[in-house]
Design brief:
Layout: E1 2-12, E2 19-24, E3 30-35, E4 39-44, E5 49-56, E6 61-67, E7 72-77, E8 81-86, E9 91-97, E10 103-109, E11 114-119, E12 123-128, E13 134-139, E14 145-150, E15 156-161, E16 165-170, E17 176-181, E18 187-192, E19 196-201, E20 206-210, E21 216-220, E22 227-232, E23 238-243, E24 248-252, E25 258-262, E26 275-281, E27 284-289, E28 294-303
Antiparallel strand pairs: 1-28, 2-3, 3-4, 4-5, 6-7, 7-8, 8-9, 10-11, 11-12, 12-13, 14-15, 15-16, 16-17, 18-19, 19-20, 20-21, 22-23, 23-24, 24-25, 26-27, 27-28
Length: about 300
């Protein structure tokens, strides 16, 4: 059994518009953020201050993904572009483009040396991580897809669409394996483990599903409104969820029992508007959203 103690370390201010994406930096002392501002920002967590604008962008940013081993940051935007930026040299290396619509989700398939992006048009694009040539293009859904997650080992990948349907594909040839309508409203968050798929939606529901056939193992209502993130702790068997209801919750992975409710009602200095995105950075949990700030939380998980 585990306990969770949480305290606010600092609040990062400087964004002028809502924040939609966070990504870890090349080391534990920095992170990246982006949203409706026309730039991707790097922050110094040691000082709690703005470090630099990594790059200016022509459109709102919905997705960030760091390729740490390669020193690259992937930036998915509303205008359908996916940029590849060298972090240390602060240089734009490639501008990748979808046919139409925003790029809402980006993930690296490191075992295959590939990059997958998907968004508003429901079509997945797969590029080489070496040449950045387009390798595959396939339709996952006839509606918007906002989230994608590779399975551990990267043998399969799961997508969630606007109709509440979850789609599972084989990574070798990107063949559709199975799909199932799970949520009554759009799928807005996905997470995977060695055994299960976890999904959250605009219907405020959370589902634990089997990987083999998407059978429902357990379901719960973790928040009052949309679930925007399901984030496993990097070490301990706990996970966090964030929501449009402005709260953060910490859960026991085994029992799905609630360990901590971080909300204004509980006396925390948390967000005043929707929490749109979050990341773990070691034992720190970072959240950001419509109130234009990033909250850095110190989290202590103990086995009792």
């Amino acid at each position: 059994m585990y306990t969770a103690d949480i305290s606010l370390s600092t609040t990062l201010t400087g964004h002028q518009n809502p924040i939609f994406a966070l990504a870890n930096g090349l080391d534990a002392s920095s992170i990246f953020s982006a949203g409706n501002d026309k730039g991707v920002v790097e922050w110094d967590l040691r000082t709690g201050k703005f470090k630099r604008i990594l790059c200016a962008v022509p459109s709102s940013v919905y997705a960030l993904e760091l390729l740490k081993d390669r020193g690259l940051l992937l930036i998915g935007m509303r205008n359908g572009e996916l940029w590849v930026v060298d972090v240390e040299k602060q240089r734009l290396l490639h501008k990748l483009k979808t046919e139409r619509g925003a790029v809402f989700a980006v993930r690296a398939l490191m075992e295959k040396g590939e990059l997958i992006g998907i968004g508003e048009e429901g079509v997945a694009y797969v590029w080489s991580l070496d040449s950045f040539d387009l390798l595959y293009r396939f339709r996952v859904s006839h509606t918007t897809v906002r989230t994608v997650q590779p399975f551990p080992g990267a043998n399969q990948v799961v997508f969630g669409d606007k109709d509440g349907v979850i789609h599972v594909y084989d990574v070798d040839d990107f063949k559709a394996l199975y799909k199932k309508k799970i949520h009554s409203l759009p799928v807005t968050a996905l997470s995977v483990s060695e055994t299960y798929i976890y999904s959250g939606g605009r219907d405020a529901q959370f589902y634990q599903l089997t990987q083999s056939d998407l059978s429902v193992v357990r379901t719960m209502t973790p928040h009052m409104f949309t679930v925007y993130g399901i984030l496993p702790h990097p070490v301990h068997p706990v996970f966090a969820t964030v929501s449009r209801d402005k709260s953060i919750k910490i859960w026991d992975t085994v029992s799905l029992g609630l360990m901590k409710n971080i909300s204004a009602d509980r006396g925390y200095d948390t967000h005043r508007l929707s929490i749109n995105t979050a990341i773990w950075n070691g034992d720190q949990f970072l959240t950001a959203g419509d109130d234009k700030v990033i909250k850095v939380w110190d989290v202590v998980i103990q086995d009792i």
